[in-house]
Amino acid sequence: MHDNLRFPAEWEPQSAVLLAWPHEGTDWADRLAQVEQTYVALVSAITRFQPALVCVAGPALRERAAARLASAGVDPDRVRFIEIEYDDTWLRDSGPITLREGEGFRLLDFHFTAWGGKFEAGLDDQVVGKLHAAGLFRGASHRRVDFALEGGGIETDGAGTLLSTWRCLHERHPDRPRAEITGLLERELVQSRTLWLEHGYLEGDDTDAHIDTLARFAPGDAIVFQACDDPGDSHYHELTAMAGEIAALRTTDGRPYRLFPLPWARPVLDGGRRLAASYANFLVINGAVLMPAYGDPADGRAAEVLAAAFPGREIVPVNCRPLIWQNGSLHCVTMQLPEGLLA
After folding, report:
1. Cα 310 vs. chain centroid, distance in angstroms?
2. In terms of DSSP H, where are the helices of the chain?
3. What InterPro entries does this protein map onto (predicted)?
4. Is 332 a catalytic residue?
5. How far apart are alpha carbons 327 and 206 in whole angstroms?
6. Do 318 and 279 form a contact (C-beta atoms < 8 A)?
7. Phi and psi (nearest 5°) for 322?
8. For residue 16, is it within any domain?
9. Average pLDDT of the chain, as a whole number
10. Residue 8, pLDDT above cutoff 90
11. How many Å apart are CA 20 and CA 96, to the nearest integer?
12. Type and span of the H or E element at 106
């Protein structure tokens, strides 16, 4: 590993959270009012603990977003807007993956293909470069990587271990062998090892099994993961197999991880289509964990699990039913920025 490069864990100190405000030119158009309510709640929750950096597609959208946030009592000094064009709002996947580089930072800009070419992504693929060119970041270099990868497809413990699903990376790069993909990830992300999961998926997820919908690292050699305890559910066998894989993983010194299984929400349907209501899609910020809530009895139990996995942090539920209509949740629309990065 490079002495001056490190990929920090999400629970390390942050300067801000990056988001992109939905608008009529995005896939949210048909339910814009509902999803804006979720964004207002999300930015309100973030700004209780740290600033939010909000991308807007132009001055009119900036004015609209600012008015919506002001009406909800959000502190305007905690919100910073940046005008930039984008196709959609999944900043976890199109935003920068940030490494600490000595006293500065390296913004990794992987090729964003909208999850294997499923949607238009020409503007989203330029987001990182445009943000860097706007001078938002202090002491940050920009590295374009000609390799398709989304931030939601990887998880790090901040100490050199990467967690991912082979289903996702193989789907993006079907002609590349596992050893080649592993080597590239470890080289670019400065990781000493990669743990691959072979199982795990969610109906209503078009990311090909992003790890951030399934299993997440927590401090102290812990893994929080989405479990399924309903043998009659279509996810039961796959998520049970994934739970077995996770139980067999070992830390760098050979110990089992401490495991925190999340409860399973009842099916959420939209016109007969199953939506991906995963509690694993939480966001860790300074002093808190923002938890996707679905108006389900399991919401409370999920909050208890996250409180145990992240002691000392407030658990803040955010209604994310409008987000899963477009096949993602809370973590998917956000990207944390490490402490000191935002100028």
Report:
1. 17
2. 32-47, 59-71, 91-94, 114-117, 127-133, 166-172, 178-189, 236-248, 298-309, 321-324
3. Peptidyl-Arg-deiminase_porph
4. yes
5. 7
6. no
7. -65, -30
8. yes
9. 97
10. yes
11. 13
12. strand 104-111
Q: For residue 91, tell me if it sits in a domain.
A: yes
pLDDT at 194: 98
Which residues are registered as beta bridge partners of 97? 108
Task: Examine the pLDDT at 235 and tell me if it is beyond 80.
Answer: yes
For residue 170, report the phi and psi dihedrals to the nearest 5 degrees: -70, -35
**pLDDT band at 342, cuts 50/70/90?**
very high
Establish how many alpha carbons lie within 13 A of residue 186's alpha carbon, considering only the half-sphere containing its beta carbon: 15
Q: Is the pLDDT of residue 238 over 70?
A: yes
pLDDT tens column, 290-318:
999 999 999 999 999 999 999 999 999 99
Q: Write a three-state SS string for 126-162.
A: HHHHHHHHCCCECCEEEEEEEEECCHHHCEECCCCEE
On whether residue 343 sits in a domain, the answer given is no
Please name the residue that has the structure tokens 């993602």. 328
- What pLDDT is attached to residue 237? 98
Q: Which of 55, 228, 320, 332 is catalytic?
A: 332
Question: Among residues of the chain, what percentage have pLDDT more than 70?
Answer: 99
SS3 192: coil
- Write the single-letter amino acid at 157: D
pTM above 0.85, yes or no: yes
Task: Output the DSSP codes for 236-289.
Answer: HHHHHHHHHHHHH-B-TTSPBPEEEEEP-PPP-EETTEE----TT--EEETTEE
**Does the pLDDT at position 240 exceed 60?**
yes
The CA radius of gyration of the chain, in Å to the nearest whole number, is 19
Domain count, the chain: 1
Instruction: State which residues form the domain around 193.
Output: 5-338
How far is 280 from 213, CA to CA, in rounded Å?
5
pLDDT at 142: 98
Residue 342: DSSP 8-state: B
Q: What is the pLDDT of residue 2?
A: 62
Residue 188's identity, in one-letter code, is: E
Rounded Cα distance between 254 and 251, Å, is 5
Domain containing residue 148: CATH number: 3.75.10.10
Round to whole Å and give the CA distance between 278 and 82: 30
- Asked, for residue 61, whether it belongs to a domain, the answer is yes
